[in-house]
Design brief:
Elements lengths: L1 E6 L13 H13 L5 E4 L6 H5 L4 E2 L3 E5 L12 E2 L5 H13 L13 H10 L5 E4 L4 E8 L2 E9 L5 H8 L6 E4 L5 H4 L4 E4 L4 E4 L9 E3 L1
Protein name: N-acetyltransferase domain-containing protein
Organism: candidate division WOR-3 bacterium
GO molecular function, one term: acyltransferase activity, transferring groups other than amino-acyl groups
Length: 215
């Protein structure tokens, strides 16, 4: 499994745009991390597609995985709702995030705590839960009969289908994953839907997204 690097955000303040600052940042990042990483990827806005093409980024398709039927429902487990306003809960999240291991052998993120924490504070603050039996933090949201799972973090290797069975409500009939699951999960015939289109910058010939773990 190769090492990769994610370019999350590049922004230029009004009044300073059009001077080449963003381009210099991209060049500096490629020069620095291109020697260490075998892959750099990003998720650009549509109006920035041509900008990134100038630096050699190529468009590939990402997938979103889903389960249309929840077959492994378990007896109700204790699930604790977490709050980012609680120092105790925040410390728990930071501990699991810091010591957590990758849950996918295809494509996963580690040492990316600052990025995850941003999403937890601004986008998923009402969707964070703790599963004590597995010492796991899970970000999920149920909308009508669909359970959207955004993040699963733990210091131990987890069986994702069992986790789904633990947290699925009686009304949930379908599950959507917003991350790439493990190969063992995919072998069970789960569906893949076309999702967003990340740009990839391959540093090693023949390297694909399926070979990388992002740091």
């Amino acid at each position: 499994m190769g090492k990769g690097c994610a370019d999350r955000t590049v922004m230029t303040k009004n009044g300073y745009r059009g001077r080449g600052y963003a381009g210099e940042l991209i060049k500096t990042a490629l020069d620095k991390y291109g020697k260490e990483a075998e892959l750099i990827f990003l998720f650009p806005n549509e109006d920035a597609l041509d900008f990134y093409k100038k630096f050699g980024f190529n468009l590939i398709y990402d997938n979103k995985y889903s389960v249309n039927e929840i077959k492994m429902r378990q007896k109700p487990k204790k699930i604790i709702k977490l709050s980012m306003d609680s120092d105790k809960d925040r410390c728990l999240i930071e501990r699991v995030m810091k010591n957590g291991i990758p849950q996918s052998n295809i494509f996963d993120v580690f040492k990316g705590g600052h990025v995850r924490m941003w999403h937890f504070v601004y986008e998923l603050k009402d969707d964070l839960f703790y599963l004590p039996q597995k010492d796991s933090v899970i970000a999920f949201r149920i909308e009508e009969d669909v359970m959207n799972i955004y993040e699963v973090m733990s210091e131990r290797s987890l069986d994702l289908m069992k986790i789904i069975g633990y947290i699925a409500s009686e009304n949930a009939q379908r599950v959507k994953l917003y991350f790439t699951p493990d190969k063992s999960f995919l072998k069970e015939g789960k569906l893949a839907e076309e999702q967003n289109n990340p740009f990839m910058y391959p540093f090693r010939e023949g390297l694909t997204v399926c070979d990388c773990r992002i740091v």
